[in-house]
Design brief:
The protein contains 4 helices and 3 strands, in the order H-E-H-H-E-E-H. The chain is α+β, with helices and mostly antiparallel strands and 69 residues long. The protein has a single domain, classed as Orthogonal Bundle (Arc Repressor Mutant, subunit A). It has a 3-stranded antiparallel beta sheet with strand order 1-3-2. A hairpin with a 2-residue loop joins strand 2 and strand 3. Helix 2 packs across helix 3. The chain is globular.
Length: 69
């Protein structure tokens, strides 16, 4: 795994703790990564049970699973 992505899961979960309901676009901008990359990474985190999403219009909005119930 490239060094810049080594703490990505922790960074994503921290961002969602601080500000729940963030879109892929918002997270990608804050983390300075490609939206397609972060979308795939979020899907993997969802599959592992770390996050969940809710579709609001065309956007997927993500939440930290442990904080949001």
């Amino acid at each position: 795994m490239p060094r810049e992505y080594s703490n990505l899961k922790a960074k994503i979960l921290k961002l969602l703790d601080e500000n729940p309901a963030q879109s892929v676009k918002e997270l990608a901008k804050q983390l300075k990564v490609n939206r397609s990359f972060i979308a795939g990474y979020l899907q993997a985190l969802e599959d592992e049970g770390y996050v969940r999403f809710k579709r609001i219009g065309p956007a997927k909005v993500y939440f930290n699973r442990k904080k949001s119930g």
